[in-house]
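Appendix B. One record, verbatim.
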Amino acid sequence: MFITKLDIYIIKKIVSTFFFSIISVLSIAIVFDISEKLDDFVKAKLSFLDLATGYYAGFAVYIGNMFFPLFTLITIVMVTTKMNQRNEITAILSTGISFNRMLRPFFMGTGIIVLCSFFINIFVLPGANQLRLDFENVHTGYTSVIRKAHYEVNKGTIVSYNSFDIKRKEFISDFWMDKFVEDSTGKKTLIYSIKADYAYGDSVGNKWKLKTVLERYYLASGDSINRIAQKDTTLSFGMSDLGQRTNVVSTMTMSELKAYRDKEIQKGSTITPFIEIEIYSRISNPLSLLIIALLGVCISISPARSKVGMTILIGIGTVALYFVFNRFTTVAATNAGLNAFVAVWIPNVVLLFFAGYIYFKTPK
């Protein structure tokens, strides 16, 4: 296999059009976001440099990565339609080049975009999201209270509480901890419980201050109960082990995600599906661009000049449905028990079958 001048011509068109379109749209998105948050920025007395380096560097990566599929489709449709209007497609096919051979530079150009997407998802996105979320934690408000949680923070230690504000990390209300021991037969026995109206934790360590405390030791000779106004203690876990923003997973590398998933599975946490979806999405999202490229070429390869607008509309509509279906399966995984791997890959499989159908129907 070798690359011809025709391949280079098409690849250059795809790459240049893609990056021009994504930079243009990101510029517009940033302007709208600034206008929406301007009052908050003024109150916080933030300079342009603070905003650029402390928020919008991460925001641009996050938004751009999210809409890579849409930008890819628009790029392929624009390039193919323009070539078709100039009769370049007809000229290429009339030389004896097969339709499948003509697809090669389109996939090669899209492949460059896919590699960029993989690089961003694996190496750039976690840091960008950390930057963005750190800024939001300080300068914007969001719903951050976890209510009525129940975790096994480590083996044999179960913690429950009524509410915890993960943003402010000031205190946990109605804190309750039970400790169990397991014998050789697998039977678990409760040996210790502690209840506190309020629990104040160290945000960086495992030191705790408990108020209005009731301790209970379960002994063979009889239970021992202590009532204490305040207790300073060190536990085997910290406040961060009792709850995180669900989108904190977007700030983690792949190795951190896998370790965090294993830890949350042990705790019986409800955040586990979010972690698994993040892991699988970082692989599936870039690969979906190749399917979108095939779809984009096939729907725009031979439209009449009067139907160019309709072609673009069909393409954007298809990707919009893909996003909606992706969101639907994600919700099903996080709320209805659908397997996270299936939830992430089903939209791609459906899109692949649709693109394959359009491919076989396309005149060649």
